[in-house]
C-alpha cells in the first residue's frame, strides 16, 4: 500500500508542479520591474527625437541641400553599417566592465548631441557627420541597454521585458513621424524649425536614464580578460551562430526607410504627409513586439516543463 501511494504521488507531482509554474509565471504588465518601464520610456523619447528628423531627412537633403537619391542611400548605408559595427564592440566592452548604465548614457548622449547639427546643416557633409555621430551613439547604447534589461528582469519575464521595451521604443518611432507631419503642416514645411523641436526629447531621454535607472548589482570576475577572442566566439555555440546567420539573411533583404519616404513624395503625397509611410510601418511593429515577447516566455516555459517531465 505504501509503495502504491508513493507511485501515485509521483505520478501526480508533475501535474501539481505544472499548475504551480503556470500560476506563478503568468505575465502581466504590472509584474515587469519599474526600471524596465524607465528604459522603455528612455527609448521612446530618443526614438521620438530621432524619427522626427529621420522621417524628413531624405526630403530635406534632396530638396533643401541638393543631394541625389544616391547620396541619401550612401549616407544611410554608412550610418547603419557604423551602428552595427560599433554595437559588436560596445557589447563586449560592457561585459568587460561589468557596468551597463553609463555606457548606455554615453550612447544616448551622443544621439542627443547630434540632433542640433541637422538643424544647422549647411550641406550634405554636416548631415553625414551628424548621422554618423547619431549612429555611433546608437551602436554604443544598444548592447548595454539590452544587457540592462536582461540583468533587471526576472528570468521568466525576460521575453515580456524585451518586448515591452521594444514596444515603447516603437511607439516613439511612430510618434516621431506623426509629430513631424503636424509640425510641418503648422510651420509651412520649415524643416529646420521642426529639427530644433527634436532636440528636446533627446535631452530628456538622457536625463531620464541618468536619474531614473539604477545600475543593477552583477558579479564581475576579479581577473578580467579581453572578451573579443576567437575562443570566446567559439564558446557562443552553434545555436547562437545559427540565429546570427538567419538575422544576416533577413538584413540582406532590408533597405533604408529613407527610400520609402522619397517614394511617397514621388507618387504625389504632399511633402508634410510623406512621413505617414513610417507611421504605418511602426504602428504594426509596436503592436506586435510585446505580444511576441510574451509568447517567447510561454514557449520557453513549455520547453522547460517538457524537459523536466521527460528528462529522466
Keywords:
transmembrane; mainly alpha; 312 residues; globular; transmembrane transporter activity; disordered N terminus; plasmid; Growth Hormone, Chain: A; 12 helices; 0% strand
Quick rundown:
The protein has 312 residues and is mostly helical.
How would you describe this structure to a colleague?
It holds the Pfam family MFS_1. GO terms for molecular function: transmembrane transporter activity. The chain crosses the membrane at residues 168-187, 193-213, 233-252, 272-292. This is Major facilitator superfamily (MFS) profile domain-containing protein. Residues 35-312 form the Major facilitator superfamily (MFS) profile domain. The structure is a single chain. This protein is an all-alpha fold and 312 residues long. It has one domain: Growth Hormone, Chain: A. 79% of the residues lie in helices and 0% in strands. The chain contains twelve helices and no strands. It has helices at residues 2-24, 34-54, 57-63, 69-97, 101-120, 124-152, 158-186, 191-212, 230-235, 238-252, 257-266, 276-310. Helix 2 (34-54) packs parallel to helix 5 (101-120) and helix 5 (101-120) runs antiparallel to helix 6 (124-152). The longest helix is centred in the C-terminal third of the chain and has 35 residues, at 276-310.
Roughly what is the average pLDDT, rounded to an integer? 81
Tell me the count of domains: 1
CATH superfamily: MFS general substrate transporter like domains
Query: What structural class do you assign from the helix and strand content?
Result: mainly alpha
- Total helices: the number is 12
Distance between the termini: 25 Å
Amino acid at each position: 500500500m505504501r509503495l502504491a501511494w508513493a507511485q501515485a504521488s509521483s505520478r501526480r507531482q508533475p501535474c501539481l508542479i505544472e499548475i504551480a509554474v503556470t500560476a506563478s509565471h503568468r505575465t502581466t504588465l504590472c509584474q515587469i520591474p519599474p526600471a524596465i518601464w524607465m528604459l522603455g520610456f528612455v527609448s521612446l523619447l530618443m526614438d521620438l527625437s530621432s524619427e522626427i528628423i529621420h522621417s524628413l531627412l531624405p526630403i530635406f537633403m534632396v530638396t533643401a541641400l541638393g543631394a541625389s537619391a544616391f547620396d541619401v542611400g550612401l549616407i544611410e548605408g554608412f550610418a547603419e553599417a557604423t551602428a552595427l559595427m560599433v554595437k559588436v564592440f560596445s557589447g563586449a566592452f560592457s561585459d568587460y566592465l561589468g557596468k551597463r548604465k553609463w555606457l548606455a548614457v554615453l550612447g544616448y548622449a551622443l544621439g542627443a548631441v547630434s540632433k542640433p547639427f541637422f538643424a544647422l546643416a549647411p550641406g550634405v557633409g554636416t548631415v553625414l557627420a551628424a548621422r554618423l555621430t547619431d549612429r555611433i551613439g546608437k551602436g554604443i547604447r544598444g548592447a548595454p541597454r539590452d544587457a540592462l534589461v536582461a540583468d533587471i528582469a526576472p528570468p521568466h519575464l525576460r521575453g515580456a521585458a524585451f518586448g515591452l521595451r521594444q514596444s515603447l521604443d516603437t511607439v516613439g518611432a511612430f510618434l516621431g513621424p506623426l509629430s513631424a507631419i503636424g509640425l510641418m503642416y503648422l510651420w509651412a514645411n520649415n524643416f529646420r524649425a521642426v529639427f530644433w523641436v527634436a532636440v528636446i526629447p533627446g535631452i530628456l531621454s538622457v536625463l531620464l536614464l541618468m536619474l531614473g535607472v539604477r545600475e543593477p548589482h552583477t558579479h564581475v570576475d576579479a581577473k578580467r580578460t579581453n572578451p573579443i577572442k576567437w575562443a570566446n566566439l567559439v564558446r557562443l555555440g552553434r545555436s547562437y551562430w545559427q540565429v546570427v546567420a538567419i538575422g544576416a539573411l533577413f538584413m540582406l533583404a532590408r533597405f533604408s526607410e529613407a527610400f520609402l519616404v522619397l517614394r511617397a513624395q514621388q507618387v504625389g503625397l504632399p511633402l508634410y504627409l510623406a512621413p505617414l509611410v513610417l507611421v504605418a510601418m511602426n504602428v504594426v511593429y509596436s503592436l506586435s513586439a510585446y505580444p511576441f515577447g510574451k509568447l517567447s516566455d510561454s514557449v520557453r516555459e513549455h520547453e522547460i516543463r517538457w524537459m523536466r517531465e521527460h528528462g529522466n
